[in-house]
Write a structure and sequence with these properties.
eight-stranded parallel barrel, 229 residues, TIM Barrel, 12 strands, binds ligand LGQLAAA5, two-stranded antiparallel sheet, alpha/beta
């Protein structure tokens, strides 16, 4: 397919020309202000802050504030949680300027909606089943992030799932994740034509340490796909 599927609110579906569409990029698990600044100036659309304490990319609120302060305008700040206590999410939201929530665990739709913020829901592609069943279960989500994990396990594993399982007719923004890197993201975008891609370990020199050269290579690979379209 040489284009991107889009469904209007009326239900009318079209393929948007590949030339007029740009796959968005989220760099997740940023732990240092200088790497947030680098990511933004290299062209990242969003950066993710991990508020899951068992992750090597977990940040405390002071570090998160420093990362946010390093960002220029028009870069979305995403707060990632995995099965958090509601009080913790509320505390983060009260202290930090968060644009979007990402729920990566087994959170129910009512829980995700309870903060009255825009949110994306992670779909565990490590399990069999139709991703569109998740889309139907979370009608208030503004997008869905397809990662390689199974229910009950963490994301950020660096593992790839079968890209042939990405639906082309979900009717909502899909964000591909899971084991993406500068070596494979071009193929992923060409094959699945997602709304966005999300990367964590594939642009790191060590767990939790982003590598500016890898981030640059990753973002270049994504834009190269569009220039060749
Ligand atoms: O990044 C983490 O440490 C993390 C922890 C808990 C849940 C999700 C996490 N990361 C998310 O997983 C995807 C894929 O990561 P990777 O590129 O395979 O390393 C990442 O983009 C985050 O959204």
């Amino acid at each position: 397919m040489n284009g991107y599927p889009f469904k209007f609110s009326s239900g009318y579906a079209i393929i948007v020309s590949a030339k007029s569409f740009r796959t968005r990029v989220k760099i997740c698990g940023v732990t240092r202000p200088e790497h947030a600044r680098d990511a933004a100036h290299l062209g990242a659309d969003a950066v993710g802050l991990v508020f899951h304490e068992r992750s090597p990319r977990a940040v405390d609120r002071a570090t998160a504030q420093a990362v946010i302060d390093a960002l220029p305008p028009f870069v979305t700040v995403v707060a990632l949680f995995q099965d958090p206590q509601a009080a913790f999410v509320r505390q983060v939201l009260s202290e930090l300027r968060i644009d979007l929530l990402q729920f990566h665990g087994d959170e129910a739709p009512e829980f995700c909606e309870g903060f009255h913020r825009r949110y994306i829901k992670a779909i565990p592609m490590g399990e069999s089943g139709d991703p569109k069943a998740w889309v139907a279960r979370y009608p208030s989500a503004v997008g869905f992030l397809l990662d390689s994990h199974s229910r009950g396990t963490s994301g950020g594993s660096g593992e790839v799932f079968d890209w042939a399982r990405v639906p082309h007719d979900a009717g909502v923004p899909l964000i591909m994740a899971g084991g993406l890197s500068p070596d494979n993201v071009g193929d992923a975008v060409k094959q699945a034509r997602p709304f966005a891609v999300d990367v964590s370990s594939g642009v790191e020199s060590a767990p939790g340490v982003k590598d500016p050269q890898l981030m640059a290579a990753f973002i270049n690979e994504v834009s190269n796909v569009h220039q060749a379209d």
